[in-house]
Amino acid sequence: MEQAGCALLENIVGRAAMLYNVFSQLGYYHNLIRRAKAFLSLNRPDLVVICDSPAFHFHIAKAAKRLNIPILFYVAPQLWAWAPWRIHKLRKCCDKLACILPFEQEWFHSRGMDAEFVGNPLFDELDYPVEQNIKSYADYTPKRAKVALLPGSRKAEIETLWPAMQKIALSIRQRYPDVRFYTAAPDMSKMVLLHKNRLSGFSCLEQIDDLMALCKQVDFALVASGSATLQVAAAGCPMIVMYQSNRFLWHLIGKWLVCTPFLSLPNIVAGRRLVPEFMPYFTSIEPIADEAIEYLSEPARLKKVSWELIETVKPLAGGKAVDKVAQMVLQMANVQSK
Q: How far is CA 319 from the centre of its chain?
């Protein structure tokens, strides 16, 4: 956005956090919300576009609504997954929703929202049929399998999931000593963090960014829960999805807020358990390692899941989400200016 000419009030990319990791940053975000409200009052825009993260953006949207500024919500918040009663807040402070998952349009429509499925921006640069990524496993052998370890891009994820993934990899190597492991980081700072949290005796090949290209080359992946799982799915790469949580807080709060039978995006979009998900897991990685070893020993299963993943993501890869949202922005801003 900055490279495209957007003036930033604050760059919060380095502060990305999920679940309980947000608590330590509440003071920072409270101050940022106050600054954003002041900016809207002094620099009245024609349109406010807010993206995901309702905990933060509901405050921005309410402030804009008080000033009679129209609001476009892109990406639509995942109210269908947890705390769906927030739909009442959303109706009050949002004029239009741009959805990136196919089923969301009907879900929000049925609850009185103006919503439109625009496709998924993760695949906007995909310039070939996604079916080309189906893996044949014709020459596959478990002894020489290639496995990607993808612990996510957030600092907290890397510090918790990366050591666990390495331990799982070492368990796999005990069964198949010649398995090769790979990992990818979004930038050099995250690669440094991977190096900092490297376990003694573990080695793998590394690359910066281009996660989807990596997953097209490997046979299997361990992936942190998040949008990256859809990119792995679009590469036709079978996976196990994992996310660590605090056992006490999960049982006290987390599981009561979640209202979807699945937590990983491939399973949510498919509407069934397409890939194993360990979300959350707490301390034991043995079940994850056992599942990974079982997967790697079954090429027929790997081939079947590869095909099913591609079928699942096809509806998401059919259009140019950014072009559709840009048209929404122009139309809404133009209507307001008239």
A: 19
pLDDT per residue over 34-53, tens digit each? 999 999 999 999 999 998 87
Q: What is the DSSP string of 276-325?
A: -EEEEE-S--HHHHHHHHHHHT-HHHHHHHHHHHHHHHGGGGSS-HHHHH
113: three-class secondary structure by DSSP = coil
Look up the pTM and report it. Answer: 0.83
CA distance 109 to 115: 6
Q: What is the DSSP letter of 111?
A: T
Q: Rounded to an integer, what is the distance from CA 292 to the centroid of its chain?
A: 21
pLDDT in tens, 160-175: 899 999 999 999 999 9
Q: Which of 62-66, 77-81, 234-238 has the lowest mean pLDDT?
A: 77-81
Q: Which domains does the chain possess?
A: 13-119+319-337 (3.40.50), 130-317 (3.40.50.2000)
Question: Which residues, other chains included, contact 84 with Cβ-Cβ below 8 Å and sequence gap of 6+?
Answer: 259
My answer on whether omega of the bond before 75 falls inside 30° of 0, hence cis, is yes
